[in-house]
Each structure stands twice: as structure tokens, then as C-alpha cells.
Amino acid sequence: MNQRQTELERDLAVLTLQITKANFQAILVGEQKVETRLVFPNSAKRYFSEQPTVENYEDLRMFKYDALKLINGRRPNAPVLIVGVESCEYKSIIDDDDKLIVLEEKGIPYPALEAYYHLGDVVFSENTD
After folding, report:
1. Counting beta carbons within 10 angstroms of the beta carbon of residue 10, is it exposed (0 to 12), middle (13 to 18) or buried (19 or more)?
2. Is beta strand 14-18 parallel, antiparallel or unpaired with respect to 108-111?
3. Distance between CA 51 and CA 54 in Å, rounded?
4. How far is CA 59 from CA 31, 36, 90, 103, 107, in A?
5. Of 43, 50, 49, 40, whose CA–CA distance to 110 is shortest?
6. CA-CA distance, 71 to 78, in Å (whole number)?
7. Count of Cβ atoms closer than 10 Å to residue 93 Cβ
8. Cα distance between the two ends of the chain
């Protein structure tokens, strides 16, 4: 990790995510302005201040991040972007009858949700050649 990246991550609230090559490239060149994530019980703590349930899913508070650190791959020299976050929101996933889709993990129901991060400028890139 270089010094600029270290400084950015120290000074900003940053969420680190793995990302596909196609989405990485689209964000790098400015074609993709929103990054979305499905929310699972084991990842919800990255997005929300409390665990989403079927009872509370309409009143959740998302964590506010200044930037997303997007990594394409798991090798030491993987391409990295740090992209500003302009805003975030979440949406419930509904069926054709406008009813919340409820999924289950280990016998516990949870609401189907997606987190949306509206992206600003790329503030750092590394290994993007």
C-alpha cells in the first residue's frame, strides 16, 4: 500500500469491497456511477447500524462512508480504486405482487435488500494499467 492510499484510508471513512473486472473498468472510466451490493446477514454489519429483520427493514440507518475502496482480485498487486461516495441508500427487493421477498439463512428469515452507493470522483487508483 502506498503512502497516498494509507493517508486516504486514515482520513476518510472507507468501505472496502471486492469487485468484478467489468465493473471496476466501468467505474474507472466513469461509465458506472452506482455500485450495488446484496445484503446478507453476515455482511449487514458493513452497511447498517443494526441487523436487518423482517420487522425493522423499513427503518434502517446505513453507515455513511466517504469512499469505497474497490479491489479487483486477491493478488498482492490487484488493481485498486478509491472512489468518493456522494450518497447511499438501500432498497428492499419485492416480488411481482409488491411484497417484500423474505429469504432464510440457518432457519432465520431476513429481508432481501440491496445497498446502493452513488459514486463521485476516483480519488486514487493503483495497478490500473
Report:
1. exposed
2. unpaired
3. 10
4. 31, 19, 11, 18, 23
5. 40
6. 7
7. 14
8. 17
Residue 45 has pLDDT above 90, yes or no: yes
Q: Could you read off the pLDDT of 50-107 as tens digits, one per residue?
A: 999 999 999 999 999 999 999 999 998 999 999 999 999 999 999 999 999 999 999 9
Residue 44's Cβ-side half-sphere holds a number of Cα atoms within 13 Å equal to: 15
CB 119 within 8 A of CB 26: no
Q: What angle do CA 68, 118, 41 make, to 5 degrees?
A: 65
Q: Is the distance from CB of 37 to CB of 70 less than 8 angstroms?
A: no
Q: Please check whether residue 94 is in contact with residue 55, taking contact to mean a CB–CB distance below 8 angstroms.
A: no
Eight-state DSSP code of residue 66: S
